[in-house]
Amino acid sequence: MQIFSTKRAQKVLDNGAADVTESQIDLALSNRQRILNKVLHSVSLSPYIEQVKTLFSLLQDYVKGEYREIPWWSLGSIVTALLYILLPFDAMPDFIPIAGFLDDAVVLKLCLDMITKDLVTYTQFKAQETSKTSEAGNQG
Length: 140
What we know:
Layout: H1 6-19, H2 22-30, H3 32-40, H4 49-64, H5 72-86, H6 102-114, H7 116-139
Helix pairs in contact: 1-5, 1-6, 2-4, 2-5, 3-4, 3-5, 5-6
Protein name: YkvA family protein
Membrane topology: Multi-pass membrane protein
InterPro entries: DUF1232
């Protein structure tokens, strides 16, 4: 039996995505370093560090108005997953060795699975932006 089920993670994401606000996006972004540190220092979460960095990049580009090609529900799921990592007392308190971050990992992994298409679209956008920037630099 799983301690924290995918079904429960789905409920966390659904509820959070439905109620996400601009201020919660700002809250996630303002806690970027704290969340990244928790991910880096957790055996359960550290395999997802690059994806978490991409999620923050996407949020930042959304807030700046540079990228808006993402459904609000997907954006809400991202914010919910990131803020869930930040909470020390979620379904399994983070101070419990190893198991404390398992629920965080389940929520994050499910979020990543659900927004795969949106992440692919975003990474393609970023690749095009990088290509345009380097071309402009070579012409100057």
